[in-house]
Amino acid sequence: VERADLPPGLPSIAYNGAQRVLARNWTGSSTVPSRALYPHQWSWDSAFIAIGLRHVSPDRAQRELETLLTAQWQDGRIPHIVFNPAVPLTAYFPSPDFWRSSTAGDKAGAPATVETSGIVQPPVHALAAWLVHRADPAASTRRGFLRRVYPRLVAWQRYLTGRRDLGGRGLASIVHPWESGMDNSPCWDQPLARIEPADVRTFHRADLDHGCRADRPTDLDYGRYVRLAASYRDRGYADDAGSHPFAVEDPALNALLIASEHALAEIAAVIDADPADHLVRAEELTTNLLKRLWNPDAGMFLCQDVITGEHITERGVSGLIPLILPDLPDEVVAALVRTATGEHFGLGGPSRLAPSYDLTGRAFDPSRYWRGPAWFNINWLLERGLRLHGATEQADALRAEALSAANATGFAEYVDPFTCEARGSQDFSWTAALTIDLLM
Ligand code: 9WN
């Protein structure tokens, strides 16, 4: 389908290319984020992948989510990685022998039959399940898709609103930078500084076998990631009050939690369950998000360090993601749009796509992972938020930039926000999937 806002031919070339990436990265029951760099199933990747895959094959999109859900723990958590036993241990670090979920996660109800990590990622899943259902409601109903996934998705949300309310303030906390999905964002520098790094000689970074060192987190970051994950593991992956050396309330994770609570209300209505509880929770969470994390001076949401009780002053793109929420005060929406298009994020010039971190920030680096580069899942969320709140021109411009950058870079993992030059790996699944979604 040709579109007036895109160069002739681009939609079909991009669609076909994206579909090929998703076919190549499909393992038979789920999709790897990237064949070389990430050869297992990742939690929030699968949700974004399902959102695009629903246009190609609603059936595969349902399986993507259901495969992930079979690795859910009894306490409700969805692990951030589900390991493929056929992949050699050396292909990705940290590997299953590091996490030891089936033994170390025993008390938290880790499954015995599949190896997983013990940490989580942002809850995009109920939103994805709802969007997947809507792509082909008749087929979804025939397969009983929503009825099957609903109780699991509810348990997942309740894990986050329950055990992970570490601050006792009605918001979920992350206990490891990997849980944000924005691993080395400068937002984590301050709370991470308290963590004694593990000695780099005690582990081997498989990511450097595939990725360029300058585009990846540093060894010092990795030392701290390893220390935090190992100590969570050694405590049986328990979330006891006061036990976490790192606990942060992240605006993006909480916004996705709320968006998924809204999606659960929609799902409940379709399967004759009660949507009321989900709507009440969504409203309460939105109130808490505004009360705790909104910062009018910054014109965006800021992370909060739960251990010190202080706001983290770094402006990470995470603080713009609540734009996806429907029930925000008008002045908050207006400020978020101003911040996205202003000097800190530069949408509409000088940035072609929203950077992961403040262009004027002390740690900005246009190449290094979550410290500046633009990511397609984040820009997809922002496009959705801008459109939801009537900023149609900005949403259209962002969509056109995202589509042309995804296509021109061979579906790169992330790109330089100014030039859209490819960074990280290519043939990246969520870039391909969200390209398809943006084309529809
Ligand atoms: C750690 C898979 C994942 C994404 C994350 C991204 C990166 C892993 C890594 O890759 O993280 O989970 O090894 O760097 O930061 O958002 O889900 O694509």
In short:
45% of the residues lie in helices and 5% in strands.
Give an account of the 3D structure.
There is one protein chain. By secondary structure, the chain is mainly α. The protein has 17 helices and eleven strands. Strands 3-4-7-8 form a four-stranded antiparallel sheet. Bound molecules: (2R)-2-(alpha-D-glucopyranosyloxy)-3-hydroxypropanoic acid. The site of (2R)-2-(alpha-D-glucopyranosyloxy)-3-hydroxypropanoic acid has 10 residues, from helix 2.
Helix content class:
40-55%
Shape: globular
Instruction: Return the average pLDDT rounded to an integer.
Output: 97
Tally the helices: what do you get? 17
Kindly name the structural category.
mainly alpha
Spans of at least 5 consecutive residues with low confidence: none
Rounded to an integer, what's the Rg over CA atoms?
Answer: 20 Å
Taking the alpha carbons of the first and last residues, their distance comes to 9 Å
Q: Which strand order does the major sheet show?
A: 3-4-7-8
Ligand names: (2R)-2-(alpha-D-glucopyranosyloxy)-3-hydroxypropanoic acid
